[in-house]
Every structure is written in C-alpha cells, then in structure tokens.
C-alpha cells in the first residue's frame, strides 16, 4: 500500500517516467498475442484486404476490395495497415498493429490531457481507467477503423481544451494540432471527423460564453492546415472516380444516418447497455463521475469538466439518434469518461468523503463479479452437454473431426472465475479498509489480467465462429496452379489469405457499388453461371455455407469434392486431383490444426 501511495500520490513525478511505465505496462495488454488468431469476419478481412491490394497495385488513392472500387471509408486506416504490412509482412499481427497502436496512444493522450487539465495523479488514474476498460482493449485489438478515428478525434478535442486554458504557454501549438488531428479524423472516418470537434467546441463556447476564444484559435491558418491535410485525397479520388462523391457523401453519410439502408438499425437506447458492458469494471463509477461533474460544473475546474461532459454526450446522442448502429461507434466516448472518472477518484482519495462513498456501486459490482465467476465455471460444462450435431465441427483432410469449441473452455472458465473473484475480493477489502486506493488498484490489476489472459481464452471459440482462415488457405492451395476461387456471397478474408481475386456468386453485399463500375460480369455471377463455370476444364474451388451446399450439390456436375468444413462453412472443389495435389506433409500438418501456409503466417505474426 505504501508503494502504491508513493507512486500515485506525488504531484510532480516526471512525465517521461510515467509515459514509459504506461507504455511498458499497457504495451503488453495491447500487443501480447496480437497475431495468434485468424482474421475475424467480416471487418478484419475487409480492412486487411484493401491495403493488401493497395500495395499490390501501387495505388493508394482509390481503395479497392476484391479488385473493385470500395468507397465506404476514407483511406487513413488503409494507409496505416499498408505501412504495417510493409514492416511486418502480410499476417494477422500486422493487420491489427495500427488499431492496437492507436489504442495505446489514446491511453497516453488521456494521461497527458489529464495531467495538463487537473494534475499528475488525475492523468495517471484516467490513463489506468481507460487502459483497463475491457471493451476498449478488446476493440483496439481488432482491425477496425473506429480506433483510428478515436485517437485522432480525441487528440483534436484534447488539444482544444488544453489550448483554451488561459495559462497555457503553447496555445499556438495545441490549436494547430487541433486542426491537424481533425483533418486526420476526417481521413479516418469521414465527415464526423469535422462534425464532432466543431459541434462540441461550438456547444462549449455557447455554454460557457467564451466566444473570445475564437480570436485566438488561429482560424485562418488552422483552416488552411486542415484543408492541406484532408482535401488532397478527396480531390484526387473524385477526379479519378466520378461516382465517388455521391456514394461517399450521400449514401455513406446522409443515408446511413437517416435511414436503415445498411440494415444496422437498433433502438435509441442501444448504446446504454453497450457502454456499461464495454467500460467494465468502471461503468458504475463512470455513471457517478458524470453526475459529480455536472454538479461541479461551476467549480474552479467546472469549464473543463463541462467540456468533457459535452464531448461524451454529443457523440453518444449522435450515434444513438442514428439509424445505423454498431458497437465500435461508441469508442470515442471512452477517453472523456476515463478523464471524468479519473478526476473523481483523485478528488475522493484526498477527501474524507471516501470513507462513505461508493457503497451502492461496490455492492452492485461485487454481486456482478460473483455472478460472472459462477457463469464462467458453469458455461463450458453446460455447453459440453449440448448435443454435438453432425457438421458442428471442423472436418479436415483425412476425415478427422474437431468438435465445435465453446466460447470458453473449462480451464478458461476457471481462470476467468478466479480473476472475477480476485476483483470481488478487492472490492470487499476496499470496503473493509475504507480505502479507495485498494479498490482502484484491485480493479486495475484484475481487469489487466482479464485483458491479457482472459480475452485470449475466448479467442478459440470466436475464431471458430468468425474466421475462415483454414478454408481460405486450403482454397489457395487448391487453386495455386491455376483455376478459380469462388465464394457464395462475399467472404471478406478469402482474397486476403488466397492472395487473389475471388468470383462472387449471388449476393454482392458491400461490393454492390464496385461491381457496377466497369465490366465486372466475369467476377460477379449468379448460380446458373457458376454451374457452367463448375463444369469447365479449369479447377474451381468454392467457399459456401452448408445450407447452400445442400441446396446446390445435386446440380453440381462433376460431383463436388469436400476439401474442408468449418462450422457452417464448406470448401468444395470440382477436381479430386485438387485435393490430392496437397502434399502429404501439408495435409498431415493441417490435420493437427495448421497448414504449412498457416504455420508460415503464424511465424511471421510472432
């Protein structure tokens, strides 16, 4: 306890040392085992394939997916992934590196901002809260554009509120950084990169009546910097692709927000339980921090607290009102909530109030942790008792069957239960000792190990359900000497692992727009066209769902050869020689769980 106080309580501990400690500590949480799992469908395959094709074509202006124009997102995340592939090779670690780095940088940004606004301890506690929010870490380890947006958007907002301090000596630097990061946010996710900073800042100026800040915000020079960074790509891609502007600005912005065209509708309250779950174990304390900050909005730090409240509320309400909702959309709210919660913990550690505080939160959290421990123990055994149906496993060459794994193994359940109970014990001990520092340290430690160890225990089940890596590698081998690789409906990671273009049969999904640019008839076919392709002279391997296979198999001539089955997906081929062409050594390695190519990819990731 004395060591914890000696580290957390000093107000003038050197910032570089804190940053180094945070980098070492959370570097493990963000990067450990990052490349162990195959790419998860659909997002990871998509955001890996676009930069792979950029590198292959040498064109970093027009994003393409399965070799057709793909304009749903701007290019910043693709550029970062392409750079990562150049540094680390085409593997899962490289595909996830940019997102994990963005997550770590956001933790460091929160530390810097908290230290500048409130003090060293507030910044440190806020960084620990963000870095041990399980949902934040989990999503940063997935190849998503949202984490790239989060770090850029957060940096822009943090730079503004730091520069708005009358005592800040480097106002110019922070204001220009605001425009730079806002431009990068636009390149990461589109117009929200401009709308969010502008909307939040205007609300802040109107609420606090600090309109005089407009005179010091370097608007002419900052606007020029913003346009110099954000505009060139939009100009170039529009010049090369006349259909870009309408699709990107109308379809991907207005229609996405106002309609259900993307089939992602959720009720208005959708993000409330999502935020409570993803900010675990700090959710309950975050709710109190919001209420406390609102009550202190007229205090000495009131304007800064109000800005953080506006930051969180604006983004939360914007996406809640949208007709298109996905879990990662809420990520830019996390830094503001972490800063509010860290400030609250720091204040209470100094006050006698800590002796009576957090009674309801501790009781609720202790109960939830106990329930979590019980469920972690029970779930794997209940799952094992469920009937194992034919086809619920992974059939590999040679006929071996690996039954479908549960999301959590019995051993994994014990580990998660122990971590939950350890956090519960910290909650109990903190109440007994009346120490917020014990509570904070216990939750940080338990959540950190839940992130670094517990999350990995879920990956086998998640990978089985959501990754087509093994089947894609088999498809690449089956068509390595020529032939066609097809997919019934577009499988995002198939061209990435195969390293080649895929024929899409039936539904085009996100490729609908690109498939209508130019003559793409040979690559987007209906089932009748696929049947003729199947009967041709070249080898054809196809990835499809079991239901599609059962429906179409009687019409396939010659009879299909099943190369592999994983969950509800199958890989079939029209040539038995294609299956036999797999080297015996490769086949036996795959029966054990990895193909030769899989081994190579894993080696590169490590």
TrEMBL record:
Domain Glycosyltransferase RgtA/B/C/D-like: 73-234
Record keywords: Cell membrane, Glycosyltransferase, Membrane, Transferase, Transmembrane, Transmembrane helix
Localization: Cell membrane
Recorded coiled-coil stretches: none
Membrane topology recorded in Swiss-Prot or TrEMBL: Multi-pass membrane protein
Ranges where the record places region Disordered: 584-606
Domain Aminoarabinose transferase C-terminal: 489-572
Transmembrane domains' residue ranges: 20-40, 93-111, 147-164, 176-207, 219-239, 268-285, 305-320, 326-342, 363-382, 407-429, 436-459
Protein name: Glycosyltransferase family 39 protein
Native organism: Oryzomonas sagensis
């Amino acid at each position: 306890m004395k060591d914890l106080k000696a580290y957390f309580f000093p107000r003038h501990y050197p910032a570089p040392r804190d940053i180094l400690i945070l980098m070492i500590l959370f570097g493990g949480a963000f990067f450990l085992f990052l490349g162990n799992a195959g790419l998860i469908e659909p997002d990871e395959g998509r955001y890996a394939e676009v930069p792979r094709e950029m590198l292959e074509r040498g064109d970093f202006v027009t994003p393409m997916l399965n070799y057709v124009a793909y304009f749903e997102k701007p290019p910043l995340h693709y550029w970062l992934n392409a750079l990562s592939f150049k540094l680390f090779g085409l593997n899962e670690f490289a595909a996830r590196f940019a997102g994990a780095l963005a997550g770590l940088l956001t933790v460091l940004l929160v530390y810097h901002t908290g230290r500048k606004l409130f003090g060293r301890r507030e910044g440190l506690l806020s960084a620990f809260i963000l870095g041990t929010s399980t949902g934040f870490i989990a999503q940063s380890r997935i190849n998503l554009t949202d984490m790239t947006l989060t770090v850029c958007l957060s940096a822009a907002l943090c730079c503004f509120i730091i520069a708005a301090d009358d005592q800040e000596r480097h106002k110019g630097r922070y204001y220009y950084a605001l425009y730079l990061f806002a431009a990068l946010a636009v390149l990461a996710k589109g117009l929200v990169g401009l709308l969010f900073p502008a909307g939040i800042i205007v609300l802040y100026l109107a609420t606090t009546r600090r309109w005089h800040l407009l005179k010091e915000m370097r608007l002419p020079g900052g606007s020029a910097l913003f346009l110099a960074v954000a505009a060139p790509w939009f100009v170039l891609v529009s010049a090369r692709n006349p259909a870009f502007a309408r699709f990107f600005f109308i379809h991907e912005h207005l229609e996405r927000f106002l309609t259900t065209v993307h089939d992602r509708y959720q009720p208005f309250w959708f993000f409330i339980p999502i935020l409570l779950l993803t900010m675990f174990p700090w959710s309950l304390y975050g709710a109190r921090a919001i209420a406390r900050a609102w009550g202190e909005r007229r205090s000495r730090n009131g304007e800064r607290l109000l800005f953080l409240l506006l930051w969180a509320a604006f983004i939360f309400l914007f996406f809640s009102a949208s007709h298109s909702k996905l879990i990662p959309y809420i990520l830019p709210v996390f830094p503001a909530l972490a800063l509010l919660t860290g400030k609250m913990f720091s204040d209470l550690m100094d006050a006698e109030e800590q002796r009576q505080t957090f009674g309801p939160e501790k009781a609720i959290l202790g109960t939830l942790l106990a329930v979590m421990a019980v469920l972690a123990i029970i779930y794997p055994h209940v799952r094992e008792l469920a009937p194992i149906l034919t086809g619920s496993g992974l059939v590999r060459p040679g006929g071996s069957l690996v039954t479908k794994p549960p999301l959590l193994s019995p051993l994994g359940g014990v580990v998660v239960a122990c971590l939950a109970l350890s956090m519960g014990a910290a909650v109990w001990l903190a109440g007994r000792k009346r120490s917020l520092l014990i509570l904070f340290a216990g939750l940080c430690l338990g959540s950190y190990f839940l992130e670094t160890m517990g999350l990995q225990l879920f990956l086998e089940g998640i990978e089985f359900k959501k990754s087509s890596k093994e089947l894609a590698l088999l498809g690449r081998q089956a068509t390595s000497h020529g032939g066609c690789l097809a997919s019934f409906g577009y499988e995002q990671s198939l061209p990435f692992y195969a390293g080649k273009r895929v024929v899409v049969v039936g539904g085009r999904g996100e490729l609908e727009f690109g498939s209508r640019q130019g003559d793409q008839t040979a690559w987007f076919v209906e089932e009748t066209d696929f049947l003729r392709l199947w009967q041709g002279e070249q080898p054809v391997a196809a990835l499809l769902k079991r239901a599609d296979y059962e429906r179409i198999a009687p019409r396939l001539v010659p009879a299909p050869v099943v190369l592999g089955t994983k969950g509800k997906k199958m890989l079939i081929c029209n040539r038995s020689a294609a299956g036999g062409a797999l080297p015996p050594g490769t086949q036996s390695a795959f029966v054990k769980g990895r193909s030769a190519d899989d081994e190579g990819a894993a080696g590169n990731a490590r």
